[in-house]
Design a protein that fits this description.
By secondary structure, the chain is mostly helical. It is 56% helix and 10% strand. A 3-stranded antiparallel β-sheet has the order 1-3-2. Helix 1 packs across helix 4. The longest helix has 26 residues. 9% of the residues are buried. It comes from Azotobacter bryophylli.
Length: 89
């Protein structure tokens, strides 16, 4: 399946997804400020951008970056699962 295609459908073709929406959909345990803090600390590898350089501009994530993040998280989980299953065999 193509993660980006599914995200485009979920977000009705929007390319820039607000931090608020990403938290509501994928990081329900975090508020937007905490998500941004974890990104700045390097704990979550998800590029946050502004639609323009103004401090008042909303912050969000490009759909490509969100798709890449989700796919990377899945790949890490699959790798971990395979390693665990090899140890048990």
């Amino acid at each position: 399946m193509n993660t980006k295609f599914l995200l485009l459908a979920q977000y009705h073709g929007q390319l820039f997804i607000s931090l608020e929406q990403i938290c509501a959909d994928y990081f329900t345990h975090l508020c937007p400020a905490m998500l941004e803090r974890k990104v700045l600390e390097g704990k979550i590898r998800l590029p946050i951008t502004r639609i323009e350089p103004s401090n008042k501009a909303p912050r969000g994530v490009h759909i490509d970056d969100l798709a890449n993040y989700i796919d990377a998280q899945r790949a890490a989980a699959v790798k971990e699962c395979e390693q665990l299953n090899r140890r048990r065999a």
